[in-house]
Amino acid sequence: MRPRLLIASIAIPTALAIGACSGSSDHGSMDMGDSTSASEAAPIAESADFNKVDVGFAQGMIPHHAQAVEMADMAIDSSTNTDVLDLARAIKGAQQPEIDQMTGWLVAWGQKVPEASGAHDMTGMDSMMMSGMMTDADMQRLEDSSGAAFDRLWLELMVLHHEGAVAMSEDEIAGGKSPEAVTLAGTIVEAQQAEIATMNKLIASMPS
Questions:
Q1: If you ran DSSP here, which 8-state letter would residue 122 be given?
Q2: Beta carbons within 10 angstroms of residue 82's beta carbon
Q3: What's the mean per-residue pLDDT of the chain?
Q4: Secondary structure of the chain: what % helix, strand, coil (to 5)?
Q5: Maximum pairwise Cα distance, the chain
Q6: Euclidean distance between CA atoms 203 and 149, whole angstroms
Q7: What gap in Å lies between CA 37 and CA 114, rounded to an integer?
Q8: DSSP states of 155-180
């Protein structure tokens, strides 16, 4: 069994948090050292710049992306399939910067930033925003597989994961207020739909 690869905690630049103080007068700054749970956090304070849909999108997509990065690292560590490796590197290269971007928004908005490494612990957050997440059992199956079986399972699970991200992004496009968040959601839809098509072709070309 291969060891699980852990996603490093996201560092929040102090300068970003300071700059957020002048971004909105409708909400206070967030104490990142506070261990208050999501269910105990203050209600979301909307402003002219963002709404609760934007907040839910960022809070849900951060751990969602973090799990995709974890899965990408597993493929980079375990696969010898060139197509799978190319996809894994592309996914990691795109989604880690997006995690950092969404983290910055939440800090600027004075909202709770979820732990990226706690992808399965979303207590108090909308489960609908976690569409397509792998369970611990799914991740264990992936860890326990190897060779062509690993490649096929990785592709199948990543298709489901991407489909979830597309659904989450479409919700943001439909109801979000933040131009930056809506733009990112559109980018995610376009990129991940293309990757879904590529992965489905690879799956179809593999021996059953």
A1: -
A2: 8
A3: 81
A4: 65, 0, 35
A5: 59
A6: 11
A7: 10
A8: HHHHHHHHHHHHHHHHHHHHH---HH
Exposure b/e, 28-40, CB count within 10 A at least 16 = b: eebeeeeeeeeee
| Residue 39 token pair | 């269910």
H or E stretch including 128?
none
Return the SS3 of 139.
helix
**Concatenated DSSP letters of 10-45:** PP--HHHHHHHTTT-SSSPPP-TT----GGGSPPP-
The hierarchical CATH code for the domain 49-112+146-208 is 1.20.1260.10
Tokens of 40: 């105990």
Query: d(Cα 81, Cα 75) in Å, to the nearest integer?
Result: 9
Q: Give the tens place of pLDDT for each residue, 30-58.
A: 343 443 444 344 455 567 799 999 999 99
Nearest to 128 by CA among 189, 174, 61, 188: 61
Closest Cα partner for 44 from 104, 106, 94?
106
